[in-house]
Design brief:
Number of helices: 4
Number of strands: 5
Shape: globular
Mean pLDDT: 75
Order of helices and strands: HEEEHEEHH
Structural class: alpha+beta
Radius of gyration: 32 Å
Length: 180
């Protein structure tokens, strides 16, 4: 027998022993398989407690479906130019008030109803990643109050996160070119 052939036979013998050690002996029964009981119904998903009748969201924290009162000044500018335009926006009980100087006041009230908490009052997630893209030179500075809370927020189009914020408030701010 040659050395190479003996090495191959030794390798095969060791492999056979290892494989044989992985299976239970014929006289040993395999462990029983368990399955979840089928006689008990699955428990319902956890839900939040029902709201008491007449309960409403806090007026200082607008969110989706919450009526909004707003008194805002929007100053639009463009980086690298002298362009400056000031607009006013007032909304009471989610309805535009006379004297508002933006083009789509009803849509702006709806946008505030849906997004104002996230856009104006929530801190951004420190773990978020923003795409590196440039949406244009438009900038906006919004000051005033929403449901009695002070607002002082700057908008720009300098990355994907800021573009997303602008888009959620587009009815208030206007298009990326500043058409309010």
């Amino acid at each position: 027998m040659t050395g190479k052939r003996a090495g191959t036979l030794t390798t095969l013998a060791v492999a056979a022993l290892l494989i044989g050690g992985c299976t239970p002996p014929a006289d040993e029964a395999p462990p029983p398989q368990t399955s979840p009981p089928t006689s008990q119904p699955a428990s319902p998903p956890a839900t939040s407690p029902p709201a008491s009748p007449g309960a409403s969201p806090s007026p200082s924290q607008p969110g989706e479906g919450t009526e909004v009162d707003a008194d805002l000044t929007i100053v639009l500018t463009s980086a690298g130019s002298n362009y400056r335009e000031e607009r006013t926006f007032r909304c009471e009980d989610s309805q535009p008030v006379e004297g508002t100087t933006i083009r789509e006041p009803e849509a702006a009230c709806a946008a505030l109803e849906q997004h104002s908490q996230d856009v104006f009052f929530s801190l951004p997630d420190p773990e978020r990643s923003c795409t590196q893209e440039y949406g244009g030179p438009a900038q906006a500075h919004v000051t005033g109050t929403i449901n009695g809370r002070e607002v002082d927020k700057r908008f720009s189009l300098t990355d994907g996160c800021k573009i997303s914020e602008w888009n959620s408030m587009q009815a208030l701010l206007g298009g990326p070119a500043g058409e309010v």
